[in-house]
Structure formats: C-alpha cells, structure tokens
Predict the structure.
Amino acid sequence: MPDQDVVDLLTAQHEEITSLLERLSAGNDAKQDLFTDLVRLLAVHESAEEEVVHPVAGRARFGADDEVVKPRLAEENEAKRALTELYDLGVDHPEFDTKLAAFADAVVEHAAHEEAEEFTLLRAQYSSTQLRRMAGSVRAAEAVAPTRPHPHAGESAIANLIAGPPLALFDRARDAVRDWRSTQDL
C-alpha cells in the first residue's frame, strides 16, 4: 500500500502478531504452522524497526534515544532470546505453552509502548510524506531481513545492516529446505 505510512504499517503488523499469538495460545491443530509464521513475522518486523524506525525516532527530539528507543531495543533483545528459546523447545515441548504465554504478554506490552511512545513521537516530528517514505524503507529492510531471531547479532541498525543480509540468506535457504521437506514423504 503506497499511501500507508510507517506507523500504520507497523501498527497493522502489531495486530497481525497479536492475532497469531492469540491463535497459538488457543491450542490449534496448525500450531507448528502458526508458530513458524509468528517467528518469521517477528524476526522480519523487529529487524526492520531496528534498522529504520528506532534510529529515526532516536533523532526526533533530544533525549528520545535514552527515554524511548533504548528501552524498546532492550525489550526486543529479550524477546529475541525468548523466541529463540521457544523455537529450540518446539511446539510439542511440555513447557512451550507456559513460556509462550509469558512471551505473548511481553510482546503485547512492547507493542503498546512502541505505539504510545515511539509512534506518537514519529507522528509529531515528521511529515506524512516522510512517514510514507519511511514505510518504503521498512518494506525494503523487511525484504532482506532474517526470518529467525538472532539475538547474538545485536540490535543496532549497524548490526542489522552488517549481519542481516547473510543471516537472511541462510534463513531463507533453511526455510526453502524445510518447505521442500514438508511436501515430500521422507
């Protein structure tokens, strides 16, 4: 959607993430597929925010980096670690649902902080044209972002720019092999 601005784009993704978390928590037959979709969406979403949105929000006004952006980055890094743990456990592990519930609460709280603080700041400081351009930058970053969390890669824009593309290539190759295997009787 070319007229969509960055706040609308990311808010819609937050809603999609919340919906996936709710469907996963409801105990669905397609649990593995839902979790795979959630992992991919969160990894891509957070990488793009770290690359594009947080640096811009940090420059929006004096003190925003320390007051608004750094706490979001810390939450995102913790979420990457938790998501990696969930991924390693697998959806059939007895602790998966309990850990997923705690993770879901943290993700929803994180999204609420971004929407109330960071997105409000962006709308106040940047024009609608700038916010639409930023949405384009987010989409471009998402196109080359890793599809799994990589908590040791770092959460800065520079870390994402350096490590993101090679990790994304590796992740997408793994995804292709996984998808091919799921269509075979192996």
User: Anything to note?
Assistant: The helical segments are 6-25, 31-60, 64-89, 96-125, 128-143, 157-183. The radius of gyration is 17 Å. The chain has a mean pLDDT of 84. The chain is about 80% helix and 0% strand.
